[in-house]
Amino acid sequence: MQANHEKIILSVKNLSKTYANGFSALKNVNLEITEGEIVALLGPNGAGKTTLISIICGILNLSSGSVEVAGHDIVKDYKFTRSKIGIVPQELTVHEFETVWDTVKFGRGLYGKKPDNQYLEELLKSLSLWDKKDKKVMTLSGGMKRRVLITKALSHKPMILFLDEPTAGVDVELRKDMWEIVKKLRSNGVTIILTTHYIEEAEEIADRIGIMTNGELKLIEKKTTLMQKLGKKKLIIELKKPLKTIPAGLRKHNLEKSEDSMQLVYHYDTHKENKGVSAFFDDLKKLKIQYKDFSTKQSSLEEIFVQLIQEKA
Ligand SMILES: Nc1ncnc2c1ncn2[C@@H]1O[C@H](COP(=O)(O)OP(=O)(O)OP(=O)(O)O)[C@@H](O)[C@H]1O
Ligand SMILES: [Mg+2]
């Protein structure tokens, strides 16, 4: 779901980052995010997700390019842009000996905002932390600590919330809770950008999914578009005799041959009306290619992920 007025709240232009040791961690990243969106950034370890978020939040300096938050440059108008952002970092950093209430209250003070106990109470209630407000953070479970950090990150009413791997190492139950929290925040008008290693998570909550590898944003697409790609299936034909090469009469089909030449793998899309499968069988018959057996298999999320990265490489 997109906000009706399609206001761009975050704009990243030609952003690059080279670390002091010469390592190029971001290469010309371009990204625009609309107010009210939930965007998930997927990518393997070291892809540059945390680097990107840290730059937007002003924790790291950029090397070249520019970033605007709500129309303001993050370098020139640092104070303004930072006040519009909340971040829950990948590494949990909480003061274990403080109470939940003090942690959250202090978060607000960091932005020079006056105390607003009523807002903080609402916030704690909405994250099911109200009954824990007087507990020391150290006595809470990992999932609860993460909620405390989310509350802290929201304590100054930011427009954008960054969640860097909010569900890493979190059990299934808590992961689902987290998804509910994210959806609820969005319905309150917060734009959310999160990173994750779980394709399933991106699918569950994101409006758009971005895929990063090697410091590049390889693609960013609506979830619905990506879901169509998930409709891909493969048909595996077990041949009676090995096929050295794919015959010319079959080349119009989207085919692959196994290394031992004993299998043909035909890729097709279950969302499209498909005459391809029967045409493929007809062609096998015409060419007198005999098979022992065949089976179909849904492309796994993992395969699609890898395929997307390869397509765009
Ligand atoms: N201070 C630094 N100096 C040099 N290289 C760095 C520094 N910090 C990060 N890197 C490198 O930059 C790359 C991107 O790191 P980053 O933490 O942004 O990846 P990530 O996508 O968040 O990975 P993960 O999924 O593991 O959290 C990695 O190769 C990392 O080793
Ligand atoms: Mg990271």
Walkthrough of the structure:
This protein is of the alpha/beta class. The chain folds into two domains: 8-228, 3-Layer(aba) Sandwich (Rossmann fold); 232-300, Alpha-Beta Plaits. Helix content is 32%, strand content 28%. The chain has helices at residues 49-56, 78-83, 100-110, 117-126, 142-154, 172-187, 199-205, 223-229, 276-286, 301-312; strands at residues 8-18, 24-34, 38-42, 64-69, 72-73, 85-88, 160-164, 191-196, 208-213, 216-222, 232-239, 255-257, 263-269, 291-298. A six-stranded mixed β-sheet has the order 6-7-8-3-9-10, with helices on both faces. A hairpin with a 5-residue loop joins β1 (8-18) and β2 (24-34). α3 (100-110) runs parallel beside α5 (142-154). Adenosine-5'-triphosphate binds next to α1. Residues 49-50, 90, 164 line the site of magnesium ion.
Summarize the structure.
By secondary structure, the chain is of the alpha/beta class. The protein has ten helices and 14 strands. Helix content is 32%, strand content 28%.
